Amino acid sequence: MSTNEEFDFKRILPIAIIVGAVLLLIIFWSRMTVTIPAGHGGVLFKLFSGGVDTEQTYKEGFHFLAPWNSMYLYETRQQEVAEEMNVCLQMDWKLGWIFPLGTSPVGLN
Question: Over 4-30, what HEC string results?
Fold first, then answer.
């Protein structure tokens, strides 16, 4: 074999590393990004460093994370439920109230 026909690993190695990195990025892109929709927040679960990170919450938008971590979403909008209460009085009279109960999450930065 002549020297022109031999593989030049010094030229091919950087190209192979770049191609491999791009392929890994394409494969893991859906695990490395998360979009938090409007009215929601996120809490990060770190698999290798202590579980749920309750000190930092994530607001709406696009976020990057390590592919082995998970983001759990929760609704941050104030929610309201209407409750109805009926009270029976003497002589078959009924007295009724409808009052709203509101809930909202605490601690979202």
Answer: CCCCCHHHHHHHHHHHHHHHHHHHHHH
Measured CA to CA, the distance from residue 34 to residue 65 in angstroms comes to: 8
Under DSSP, is residue 95 helix (H, G, I), strand (E, B) or coil? strand
pLDDT tens-digit map of 22-79? 999 999 898 899 999 999 999 999 999 888 988 888 999 999 999 899 999 988 887 7
Q: How many CB atoms lie within 10 A of CB 100?
A: 8
In this structure, the strands spanning 70-75 and 51-58 are unpaired
Quick one: which of 103, 41, 97 has its CA closest to 73? 41
Q: Give how far Cα 38 sits from Cα of 34, 35, 63, Å.
A: 13, 10, 14
- Going from the C-alpha of 49 to that of each of 42, 71, 109, the distances in angstroms are 18, 14, 22
Alpha helices in 1-109 (DSSP H): 9-32
Q: What is the pLDDT of residues 77-94, one digit of tens each?
A: 877 777 777 777 676 767
